[in-house]
Amino acid sequence: MSRVTVITVAYNSSKILPGLLASLPEDVRCIVVDNGSADTDATRWLAETHGAELVVSETNIGFGRGCNLGAAHSNSEFLFFVNPDASLAPGAIRVLLAAAEAHPEASAFNPRLREGDGRLAFKRRSKLLPKSHWLPRAAAEADCELPVLSGAAIFVRRAAFETIGGFDPKIFLFHEDDDLSLRLARDCGPLRLVTGAEVTHLFGESTVRSPRTAALKAWYMGQSRVYAARKHALPGAYARALSDALLQLASPLTLLSKRKRAKHWAYLRGVLAAYQQNTANLPLPWG
């Protein structure tokens, strides 16, 4: 399928990457972007074993910029950005291509996502959209137009991706898929769910779990939320993020959990760090 390139961004993901690579059809090109990992040699071996191409970034440049780097090394009509902790059901790409042919007005698509236990994982809302744009959970039962895409598996026309300039390089992590979705829908065409194509996503397994990793992700979540909300002209972008951060810290559940205290404190620090900065790609406050 020369019309499609699968692109996955890996950061210390060699333990979970085999599931994705093994699920890909042999005739589909796959580019693995190693994002400054410590396990680059293992990822290189996996890529070679499964016939994938490896693009190495010497440092972790963030998820969105990693996707952009992979896209720059491809020339196919469609780009399929898939998380390394995901795997495709047989025929998923073929069904997505058929949906793209049936809906030429659409710019990008989500397959139906399932968690590891088989439950549906349906992204039906976004902090960047008013509640009036959110979908009911039942909408996941049939093909439909989406308000926002899940970044776990985005099937997008290259022409549309290039029209909007790809992922925003100012967003290191989190809300980059929401931002991409809103720009695609505004400038290129609707977003659609394709229920006949399925992808299983082991949420949160793409990086090693640790208290430090959880705090790091929360910090980026905080600053990305402020940046993306400001970018899309949401009223009270900073105030709302700050209010949510303080409410999380004040929760009794947070007070009783050392892990949650560290996570929510890091989120607050991320919100505060973004207050005067027009980016969600700030230097880390700790080494």
From TrEMBL:
Residues 5-164 form the Glycosyltransferase 2-like domain. This is GT2 family glycosyltransferase. Coiled coil: none annotated. Keywords: Transferase. One of its GO terms (molecular function) is transferase activity. It comes from the Bacteria. PANTHER family: RHAMNOSYLTRANSFERASE WBBL.
